[in-house]
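Researcher: Next entry: Precorrin-4 C(11)-methyltransferase (Priestia megaterium).
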Amino acid sequence: MKLYIIGAGPGDPDLITVKGLKLLQQADVVLYADSLVSQDLIAKSKPGAEVLKTAGMHLEEMVGTMLDRMREGKMVVRVHTGDPAMYGAIMEQMVLLKREGVDIEIVPGVSSVFAAAAAAEAELTIPDLTQTVILTRAEGRTPVPEFEKLTDLAKHKCTIALFLSATLTKKVMKEFINAGWSEDTPVVVVYKATWPDEKIVRTTVKDLDDAMRTNGIRKQAMILAGWALDPHIHDKDYRSKLYDKTFTHGFRKGVKSE
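Model: Predicted structure:
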């Protein structure tokens, strides 16, 4: 028995990988997170495929359904939003499935963090400014490990991408300030990146909560924070070594600067 876990991408049906789409179109049974995955993408399933929504299922129910269909000899795919590796809750499914002898193949997808960066026309790693991106979430009802508090992570002063934090922006602001961030540090919020109703909000640490409230954003938002998101970044002269004509690498010999 084999299960395919497919990353659907952030929303736009065209952003699923070629491999992911092929598997979706071959599957006899498609289970998908209907609260997050585009219906237009799921409509690309093959005619006659059994399509099951999982938003209302608990873990054992969902895994039991997949096992039942695979034991009937059917090809089953499980479609997750974005990339399954990021907050996809796939490990708990895999644990139960592997106990039953199921082989698993994971097909990666485009994460909302990169879709949001694209929407914002941003590069998250800017030479001489920041070379690190932290992917995390604010602490809410679900705690984070002791050494992963946002205040501690933010002390690195790098780019931070916050998943699952749209309702916790007051807490985010406080922790950024406690970490030594200036109140005017740029923040970009992308609501439903790549969906037809995508919204991009540019703000600062100081005004983040007001901006979220004003725009009515309380879910499905990626928060990108740090000076790489400076709206005036294009006016500044940050340059990488990669295309520096004086820099030698394996594919090009540098030339002396005149």
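Model: Note for the record: The longest helix spans residues 59-71.
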